Amino acid sequence: MLKDMLWLIRKTILTSLKDYKNLLLVIALPIVGILLSTLIYKGSGETSVNIGIVNHDIEQKVTQDTIDFVAQLEHTEASVIRESEADDLVVSGELDAVLIIPEGFAKGVIQGTPEPVRIESIKGAQVTGYVKSYLNAYVQNISSMGVIAGGDAAAFNELYSGYRSSTFQLSMTTVADQSANHDMTNRTIGYLVVFMLFSAVNLSALTIRDRENRTYYRLLSSPITARSYVFSNAIVNIVLMMIQIAATLFVMTRFFHIEPGIPLWQMFLILSLFALVAVSLSQVIVAFSDSTMMANGIQTMVIMPTSLLAGCVFPLTVMPEAIQRIADFLPQYWLLDTFGRLQQGSGLNEVILNLAILLAFALALTLIATYKFARNRDTQSYI
């Protein structure tokens, strides 16, 4: 049996190498996925927010200190503008948002009931949320002094002066933001998963061509069994998948300098486990297909919808929660969830369940494919 399987492996490799485009697609498509991920998330790290400040409460120390506070925020560029030019600057994109401080703001702070500061932007909470969170906390702090002073300006000024001249120091350490790298890694892996599934079906479809030209039936009339035939094709498929994985990880880290936040050997092993799932699924699709055209149709109907629902193409969080629950039944989701957990600091021992689920998918699909191939010993012709 071993001799027969080695002969089948050699036959499959030679057949695959006859068309160099197959190998080119195995290597080139994942690189295209890396490039696409880089373009999507380029500049998604730290960026500056340009804020225009309209001050209607002029010549007030509390108000000016508030403006200075906003200007000193990290990743924020602030400038005082006139209200008449605010709309044009926001619409033209020169400003991301406009901060409007109402008249009587300082007086309200002293009394403990400050007038609300408006933030206007056409870019929504993605831009205004950062400034608003810091500004609200600052205004709440200084207005609490007005509450303590009971609206007495002299008492407030004394408390406020002490607050401004406090000698306590805050030590700060800058931590590199790896979120963009992690996002690019996850999206790259998502695209790689899709390409692995399509590449696996493309190679497994060699068995359909063998059935169409009746080579498959002639092989089964010899001592070669259906199990040997399926496993030999799967072995070659898995080897090509591992080459695809290694090439993708190498290009991603060496040429695009994407830091995945996970040791590469762990990524390779986990993706190799998913390669078993991809090859098993491809064998099932081929086993239930009567022609190459039918296999192409089934793979499109199966791979693309499940990959979309699992979060391979875009983040799963953008979908309704009811739809997200469907992902629990898809192997692609468990692969991406594994990488997400590892990026957050989990160890391999904490993702054993995920890996076991992937292995269960691979075993179940392999059994289905083997059984179906064994039932296809008939000698009917393709029409």
From TrEMBL:
Every ABC transmembrane type-2 domain range: 152-376
Transmembrane segments: 20-41, 189-208, 229-252, 264-288, 300-319, 351-374
GO CC annotations on file: ATP-binding cassette (ABC) transporter complex
Membrane topology according to the record: Multi-pass membrane protein
PROSITE patterns to which the protein is assigned, alphabetical: ABC_TM2
UniProtKB keywords: Cell membrane, Membrane, Transmembrane, Transmembrane helix, Transport
UniProt-annotated location(s): Cell membrane
InterPro entries: ABC-2_transporter_component, ABC2_TM, ABC2_TM_bact-type, ABC_2_transport
Chief localisation class: membrane
An example Gene Ontology molecular-function term: ABC-type transporter activity
UniProt family annotation: Belongs to the ABC-2 integral membrane protein family.
Cross-referenced PANTHER family: LINEARMYCIN RESISTANCE PERMEASE PROTEIN LNRN, MEMBRANE COMPONENT OF ABC TRANSPORTER YHHJ-RELATED
Protein name stated in the entry: Transport permease protein
Source organism of this protein record: Paenibacillus lautus
